[in-house]
TrEMBL record:
UniProt superkingdom: Bacteria
Location(s) in or outside the cell: Cell membrane
Bilayer disposition of the protein: Multi-pass membrane protein
Source organism of this protein record: SAR86 cluster bacterium
Presence of keyword Transmembrane: yes
TM region(s), chain numbering: 6-24, 44-64, 117-143, 155-177, 202-222, 234-259, 279-301
One GO term describing the cellular component: plasma membrane
Descriptive protein name: Lysylphosphatidylglycerol synthetase family protein
Length: 314
C-alpha cells in the first residue's frame, strides 16, 4: 500500500513537472523569466484580488460545512474551520488522498461516520464541477470564442442553456441525491439512513458554489488587470475561459488541484485574445495569489482559535 501511494505521488509530481515544462517551452520562457515578470507589478495592486480569493476560500468553507450538515454530520465551526484550512493546503501535495483523507480521519476521531464525511467531500467536488458546467452553458451563447474555435452554431446557442437548465434541475432535486447516496448511506450507520435531502438545502449549496466561483473569476480578472491595465478584459469570454480552465483542472486526476493543467488551458485560450510577452506569468499569478489566500486563511483560523482558547483558559 505504501509503495502504491509513493508511486502515485511520484506519477503526479512527474505530471506537474512535465506540464509546466511543456508550458514554459511552448511559450518560450524560463522559470527565471516568470519570477522576474511577477515583480513587475506593484504588490499594492494584488491586495484586492487577494481579498477576493480569501473571500472565495471562506465561501468554499461555508459550502463544505453545509455539506456536512446535509449528511447529518453536526460539528462546531471551531473544529471544522481549522480542518478545512489545513486540508485545503494538502490538496497541492502529490498523492491524492490528503485532501479528503485528512477530513475523514479527523472527523472520525470526533465520532462521525467516515462514509458521511467522505460523501461531504464528494458532494463538494460534484457541485463545484456541476455549477461551473452550468455557468459555462449559460455563458456559451454570449461568447465570441466559438466563432474562432468551432464556428457559429445556432443549435449550440440553444442547446447549451437548455443543458444548463436541466443540470440545474438535477443538482437541486432531492430525488437524484437519494438515488445516488441512500444505497450507501445505510452502510456503517447502524441501519439508520434517515438522511433527508431538501430542495432548499441543495439550492443553498449550489448558490454558495456559484457565488464562490463568481468571486473567484473576479479575482482572476483583477489579477489580469494589474498586469494589463489597458486591456478591456471584462467580458463573457474572460469568465468563460477562466471557468473552463478551472473545470479542466478537476478532470485531470493526475494533477493535484489541477496544477499546471489549469494554467496551460488559460494560456492557450488567452493567447488567442491577448498578445503579451508576460502572458504565462499573468496566467500563473492568480494561482499564486490563491495559494497565498489559502495560507492566510489557515493562519487567520489558527490565530482566532489560539485567541479563543487563551480566553477560555483565562
Amino acid at each position: 500500500m505504501k509503495i502504491n501511494k509513493a508511486f502515485m505521488a511520484a506519477i503526479k509530481l512527474l505530471v506537474i513537472v512535465v506540464v509546466f515544462s511543456w508550458l514554459f517551452r511552448y511559450a518560450n520562457v524560463t522559470f527565471i523569466d516568470v519570477i522576474k515578470d511577477l515583480s513587475r507589478v506593484s504588490p499594492v495592486l494584488f491586495i484586492f484580488p487577494l481579498f477576493l480569493f480569501l473571500l472565495h476560500t471562506l465561501i468554499t468553507y461555508s459550502a463544505w460545512h453545509k455539506s456536512l450538515l446535509l449528511f447529518g454530520v453536526q460539528e462546531s465551526v471551531s473544529k471544522t474551520a481549522p480542518l478545512f484550512a489545513f486540508s485545503t493546503l494538502t490538496k497541492y501535495v502529490p498523492g491524492g488522498i490528503w485532501h479528503a483523507g485528512s477530513r475523514v480521519f479527523v472527523l472520525a476521531t470526533y465520532g462521525h461516520s467516515k462514509l458521511k464525511v467522505l460523501f461531504s467531500v464528494l458532494i463538494e467536488t460534484v457541485l463545484s464541477v456541476s455549477v461551473a458546467t452550468i455557468l459555462l452553458c449559460f455563458l456559451y451563447p454570449f461568447i465570441n470564442l466559438n466563432q474562432n474555435i468551432i464556428g457559429n452554431s445556432a443549435v449550440l446557442d440553444l442547446f447549451a442553456p437548455a443543458a444548463g437548465l436541466l443540470l440545474t434541475a438535477c443538482i437541486v432535486a432531492p430525488f437524484f441525491y437519494k438515488l445516488v447516496f441512500f444505497k450507501y448511506a445505510s452502510k456503517g450507520n447502524n441501519g439508520s439512513n434517515a438522511i433527508e435531502f431538501r430542495t432548499k438545502q441543495l439550492a443553498t449549496l449550489a448558490l454558495l458554489h456559484a457565488l464562490g466561483l463568481a468571486i473567484y473569476v473576479l479575482g482572476y480578472y483583477f489579477t489580469f488587470k494589474a498586469y494589463l491595465p489597458e486591456q478591456n478584459l471584462f467580458s463573457a469570454d474572460f469568465a468563460f475561459i477562466v471557468m473552463a480552465a478551472t473545470l479542466s483542472g478537476f478532470l485531470v486526476i493526475f494533477a493535484p488541484a489541477g496544477l499546471g493543467v489549469r494554467e496551460s488551458v488559460l494560456y492557450l485560450a488567452f493567447s488567442q485574445l491577448i498578445d503579451d510577452s508576460m502572458l504565462v506569468t499573468i496566467c500563473l499569478a492568480p494561482r499564486l495569489l490563491l495559494l497565498v489566500a489559502e495560507v492566510l486563511f489557515f493562519c487567520m483560523i489558527k490565530a482566532v482559535r489560539t485567541s479563543y482558547f487563551s480566553k477560555v483558559s483565562a
